[in-house]
Fold each of these.
Amino acid sequence: MISKKKNKWCVGVLAVFSFCSFGLSKQAIAESYPAAFDPRQMGTVTPVKQQVGNFCWAYAAVTATEQNYVNKTGIQADLSGDYYARLLEENGYSGADMVFERAMGWQGPVLEKDFSSDGPGSHSKEELEKVPAAVHVQGFTTLPALTNFQTNTADEITNRINKIKSAIYNHGNVTSSRNGLQSYRTDHDSQNVLVQNAVDYPDHVVTIVGWDDSFSKNKFTYKPARDGAFIAKNTWGTNWGQKGYYYISYEDAYLRNQELYFVNSVESPDNYKAKYGEGVINGGRRIETKSSKTFGHVFDAPKEAEKIDAISIRTAVENVPYEIYVNPNGVPTKGLEGFTKVAVGTKADIGAATIKLEQSIPITSKEKFSVVIKLTKPSNLDKMPIPAELGAIGREIFRGHSLDENNNWKKESDTNYLFNVYTNSNEPVNLGRIKDVFPAPNFAAEIAKQLGKSIHDSLTQEEADKIKSIVLSGYHNQEVDNAQGIEYLSNLEYLQFQDGKLSTLDLSKNKKLNWLEVSGSLITTLDLKNNPELRWIDATGSKLTSIDITNCTKLESLQLGTNKLKTIDLSRNPKLSFLSIYRNQLESIDVSKNPELNHLYLGLNELAAIDVTKNPKLYYLRVDSNSKIAKIDLSNNPSLLELGAGKTSVRNIDTSKLPNLKYLELVGNQLKEIDITKNPKLENLYISKNQLTAINLKNNPAIRFLSIGENQLKALDLSVNLQLISLDVRNNQLSVLDLSKNLKLKEGTYQTDNNPGIKVTPPKV
């Protein structure tokens, strides 16, 4: 049992809405996840918190926020849990959801170093609300409790596990409320709360940050049915548990009978200039409707020119169709007259999300502008609840409007709907002359060409925002040696600086980039932490000694051949399917977190080992000229078509689990034997410079190219290999070679030199 030490206990509830779950996200069910995911091993964790007072929920919430931010940006932010403890101390027994609601309104979070407290009442609410946020929370999600948690089937539990894994993998965090004492082991390293014990009131909140499928069920005091556990980060300091962490069984009942929350978007505090709207619940919790509901707010227009770039929406049930409309020049009059539809979609999850507009909407009015949201009730519901602030005590401003069945607008007297409008400056920003902004002549010329200008003309930020693609290649006398100015191309999606003299490249401001080619450059370092949309990278033939792709979670293709890399971290690239890092200086590589990998080229490195047992989709594998590799386990690669492992230390290789293999290269490996009888589709076989004394090719009728020279063969039966068009058996000990049935072999396509006294029966004409 855990001793009741000072500052360790808290009472918290994570419950805002009590609505039922209406199905699990198809994406969460369909995604495949690695067997283990531990941010402690990736260096993407923030310090364990030491809570003060009964405010675990505040500390767990900022821990979740930190984890999302470091996962997405690589930047660690030590946020203050005590700030929210003071801000919400009137709601002493609160929950992480209350923190996320405040954060959506940009009330915090604040940095630990920027906030000091002398305990309860040391700051007025007004003072606290004025402290600038260190980061901006732009969304959070609720995973509703399962209504039938006491009788969940194994499949239902698995689906719940996958939902939690999806949140952790994609967003870094899940907050879980539970009973702090229930069923811990005496060493405080694991917990499994049984269904019959989960009726106890939850009094603690922790943050789940990872998992381990192999964590033994025998390590729990109350043994669950299956192995596997989530990694939880506590708020009781590093002297508790495993330096502040412990394991929660996949079957823990509190994971199912309580709502779970996670932060889905955290951005830098300069992401928008201003925020309009209400993201905080202070009064009532919801409005119910039996059909669709159209509602909106009227806002005072800004004094300076601004444009609407994003709008957050809030839903209380899953799979809600939405439409967003903007009137930048006035208030609602009749229906949607004067409004423009700016976004449409279906919000799959419960909670808040920020919808970024495809095109900015300038606010043209000097007095008022309006934003309207239409939510449509999902067909499986009788009523749809809508989060709102109703009759809040002390609240004087109510902006809510709703559209009635007669298409008339009604101004609400006591309602604020929970959505925010985010804006940026719309003042024209003159960046200077194009030739000065982009010193590289070819770069400047390309910008001017796309904008229909001269390089001597001035450039505004609005014009720079129009540039989405840059293609400049040394092959066409368009090489670039200076990328200065690229920081202004915030909407850049496609970039090609090929075969130039470019030695440095800062892409930290090009967050929409999805295609990058800098092959043949002089670049030594690529820091791509701020480029989460990247799907394709080619830096072949450059001078790279380091590359950071840890935040490129959408990356599918990575080509880094002929560089100087000694190491690379691929642990955060689950969608990677094409990987080519030949001719580098790699001493080790881990591809176990890349289940989609199908093409892997690692030839000409310094690898001592390669493990591809977690890559079942692999169809191309080349590890040739890695002299230290002595073993390759191919037991879980049934799709493999091409294998190259020549000039390694592999002396034995098992290809019996490769029924589709078509290409096999094992030149210069000192093999004494090889069994390819289970590879009936083999077409290309290159196994020269070994020590083979015999080989059975009777189960390989598809072979077309056979190179088996410089071995010790004394006999070779090619009677079933009728597709042969090229044969090399030089430097063996063959005395007889019958090619009479190999009719596709022609003179000059078979070589038999240096087989003393050999008698060759040529193909029949």
Amino acid sequence: MILPSVLSENARIHARRPAVLDDDGMFTWAEFADRVARAAGILRHLGLRRGGRFAVLMRNSFRQAELLWAGYWSGIVPVPINWRLSPAEIAVILEDSECSLVAAEEEFLPVLDSPELSAWRKQVLRVEATGGRKAEYEALLAAAAPAAVEPVLENDDAILLYTGGTTGRSKGVRLSHRNILANAWQIGMVSGIRTGDVYSHVAPMFHSADLHGTVGFLMGCSHVYLPQFTPAAAAASIERYRVTIAHWVPTMIRMFTEAADSTRHDTSSLRMLFYGSSPMPVEWVRAVCALFPGIELFHCYGLTETSPLLTILDSASLRSCLESGDTSLLKSAGRPLPGVELRILDGDGRSLPPGEKGEIVVRGPNVSKGYLKRDRENAEVFRDGWFHTGDVGRLDEDGYLFLVDRKKDMIITGGENVYSSEVEAVLYLHPGVSEAAVIGVPDDRYGEALFAVIVPRAGVTLTAEEIIDHCRAHIGGYKIPRRIAFVDALPRTAVGKVQKAALRARYRVTQGRALG
């Protein structure tokens, strides 16, 4: 089965049911499918063909959704771009993916005027955030001839998602039609999502978390797109469109439960809330249950390479924890989804028994075929039929997965993945920095915050403000360390490796101002 089949079936079976609910109006499944076919016609008119790629630089919107589905429809692979990245980081992705077009929202057109992106200035499809008679994109759509579905294969690339942001770490993950649809079926089997539900797309659509919403397409749900999360916007959207399903990160959930705006709107329609990136403290879980009586909570674990989910801690298990008083299971990421095989391996590749910590490896129909142009990484990560996640975890006797550490030193801040080596590489560009290490420390708002530990060059005096300004010129804002310590030396092992565990132990309780 391929993704266009889902859209065609919805247009046939649910022709008059709402597919999109938006300030610009309601679009039925028949209307949305027509818009997708016309958007595919625009792409073909602009010279793109099956197997080609185009970038999407937009906030969440149904127009971005129809462009992504236009790619699926025509066999042209969309490459959603994180709009928080710097122009230099965006250029790396565009070059690596060989995109021949950038579909950009008006807000981000100035970004394309940057010197680093000059090669793509004449290859831009302008997309307005709202419709209207003067909207260029809507005029193009109305004039376009609907394109016929391209007979793609289920193992063809459907989308290319990038996991990092700089030259050393950025990798394009190739996800096929089979990968994405398999995960949608897996989620549907354990969640109870159904036709008539209203799915709110809150996770950025450049992020693999939004692929979770494919199950909503599979089930014929209605879809609402939130351009950017704030508690007020989320609450108003739930009330206006009677949203029933959302997928948030713990940071969003805490912001929502603590905001006065959350109680000023009727949010009683929300019946199902998925959350991922990290477990939630028990008091946060109780706060959600108090705010949304009867809510079904699901804790998820996954990666971009797994389209995205691998495990789910189901609502019944969560409720049972709260009712029994034994909340230890709340730290679990749940059990593998149907069709997912998960093992814990030691350093020699041998399976470990329950309770033992090791690397999490998985296989299943939702696992990516690999990274674009990364033969070495593919050989290391996708081997012997298994995907080696780089995450460390353990299984209990009942098959529940507990994450222990991130083998790759990845930091999750506000739901965004940041590799410490990316930030360290930027810090080393500063002439006054001799050594640098970046770690994640607990943060009440974002889950983790970036903390940089820096050894200045001899005779050089650095300030936190100077380092932050330097980083701002090279990387996206969410990757910039906001807490900085200046030290005489970094702790190292006998073979010279930085002991990040020692740094985490030293700085994990540090809050507030940067340290000097």
Amino acid sequence: MLQAIMSPLANASKSPAPCLQVAREDASAVAEAVFGKVFRADWSEPGFAILALPGETDSKDLRQFMVALKQALSACHASRWGEPLKYLSLGRFDQQTTTKLHLDGAPEISLLMLGYEPTSVKSELQIADYTRCACDLGLTPTEFLQEHNPMFIAGQELLEPYTTRLTDWHEERPRILLINNSHAAPASPRHTAGVMHGASILRPDPNASRIINSTMIAPASCVLEDASAKEAEFLHTDAISGLL
């Protein structure tokens, strides 16, 4: 199924989760192909996935596919764990800021879906398998975050052997980055091993844009205030003003 709908793009073969070209916009098939890679049960899968859409995909088409993919992933999640996925937040940003490895603020089980529009601004994407590092140290994910925060140099150095760095991830094309943002304890019945993410802007350009369409998603039982009512605005707005 994966080979039928996707193929690795050039220069991405060294990544444990290469940038995959979506050959046809079948959100259900794509969701089935990547669900286990992102909502992983163990460390044989990377905990993230990168999808490259056709070059002619415009901003609104990208967002439309993000919404369709979320719905399809929700169906996969309901089949696996018995509950759908809901939006925690939706927004659009023009961002050229370097960020250290981190988790975004969200419940203990969460998925970050980022839709990147084509840009000339080059960046390095970093994904750190912090839950594997935590396990190797005999710590839960939460204990690791408390004791080895990568915002500090010691935590960064500890995570270096667990970090994947991508400097050629086809920024000339529209892409979707799926990140398992979870920090649930291994004993949790819904445990899925999360990863941290960060980005370094290699060549900032004040005359260029680097637009990111951002959605945070979580199981329905973890969502106190469903942001789904903002979905239509997310799909149709031309504004780039942060969270909706």
Amino acid sequence: MKWKYGVPAILFLLLFIIFSFYCASACKDIVACGNTTAGDYNLLLKVRDPSRPGYQVLTMVPQGYAYNYHHPWTGENISYKVNHSYIGVATLGDTIPNIVKAGMCFTDSGLAFGDADAITHWKNPTKYAWDDFDWIRYACQTADNEEEAVHLLTKDAVDKLHATNVPENLFVVGPKKGYVIEADAIHYDVTEIYDGVAVMSNYGKNLWEKSLFLRTIAPSFNATFQGNVQKGQVIQLGDNCVYGIKLIDIGTKFIEVKQVPIQFNKGNIIGRVFDLFSTTKIQLKNAEKIGFYRVRLQNITNETASIFMCFEYYEWEEKMMEIIRPSIGNITISMMMQWSRLHENDLDGLRGVCDDHEIYPYEGSMIYKLPKTRYETISEGWFSANHPCSTIYVPIHICNTDIYEPYKTGDAAVLSLNLLTIYGHNFLSEPFHEVENVFINELTLLDPIINESINENKDVSFLLTTLDMGMQKQAYLTQQLWLNTSKNKKSDLITPYLFKIWDCDFSETIENIEVVYEKIQQFTEIEEIKKDLLNIAISIVDTRIRILEQSSEEWFLLKDALNEAKTCFDHEKFTKGFFLLQNTLNKTNQQLLTYEKNQINNEENRSLIESPSSNFIPLSPSKVTSYVLEISPNNIYI
């Protein structure tokens, strides 16, 4: 056979392959569309381990914002104007007045965008090449719908501009459907999702054959091997692959294997020398990650091992879908939150969705809920400022006009990382998810009011901004409470009480705060902890009062009652202070219920006028009350 290339070129290629390491960043995305979700909405989760390291923040980009950015080949400045406002997650400093480089975002056209770096060498080679954030920004600021977003990301950015130096898996989800786009500077493949779930990370699938590097691992993403092997044998997933595994030894209940050629890890020279000699034992019926591969030992007979072998992420996807599949048809934001907290041990040793903070110290997550209608106002995001297992997800709506300061400055991310360092992975997941469930319940309680206000062409941005910023503050204060508790000498005795604070709704949470406040009086040096507890309770009531500011003529009386409660706390009259807080919250509940009843009655009257011949049955006050009680049974006081 006559080689097309000379010997030096071939040697260079072999050295590149042998001494290369897998260097993709670590993003994970889940798309759920159509009948897979629990309602009339589509969902997108992205967990971001950023390629631009730093604390993750929320940033708002308004419609009409103008800026200049260079052409991806010539470097010539081009003027851009934002047609659709968007809210993004970016590394601190990658926000206005600098060029916005959001790793995920959602827009007032009802679209959400995410990505995950892929692996090909088809790149724009110039110094002016765009990165993945430029790619997303180019589409999100302009696209009116899902189809336009795909066109901008592919026909424009790839076919016309060949813009990017980073191959990507791009995710677009809107009110009608979702898309998964695999793309580089030359190629792209588009998969449409109407009713379905997609899970993906940092690898190609449909564009696998376009990647020289991936073809050295396997001929395709889903290539597998299942068969008998013996000591000393090398197994590869395809005839033309470079990488494979070698069976070093066979025991009675284990095999010892290593990847060949060696896949060097990032690190110092000592670590790389260690890689030359490292092997992995796989026990019978178990599986392990071996370099790029997942290898399962199925049986051993007469010094022959029966194994299953695949690309590691092929099994990662299978394992993720095994977890997700039972929920298809009922997927919610709450479930997405829990899936973002899956760790390596939850996935049988495969890569966690929530990654190792020692490898990836900065990790931000966002869950997007894109409703079928009114998406320009009530499209919803839930933000985790750092690793989800040590962070409380906080809500933000696309119509919001502001964000609680720590989520803009990076302080929320710093706090979450401190908690992860102190408590480790998993410990805080359960109590933090209780906080999130209360937030979800409270937002659900206000859904009828929000929808009716929109029906009447009323601006709901004040209401939703107030509610979301209140919850952002309460989440931050709750995380601050856990941090301050960790500093107390009796933290091991105080901590169990913190698990009992957030439950069901705001009303029950304030009751629980009062109980915990009384219980911890037995401990010393707890001033900061008590202050945090009071601030959480005060913030809850203050948020409710602010919500009523535009709809109730008596809101200032409620504000006076809150100030009286604060005065009681200042004078250590805690029983009276908590009574005033709870009583004030009850009154806000009554006013919200009254407002909702009036809206329902108005809607019924309109329906009767518009359809006088219909069989109209008036809804009694008791039925209205029951309806609200079902949403939040402890939150209504009649």
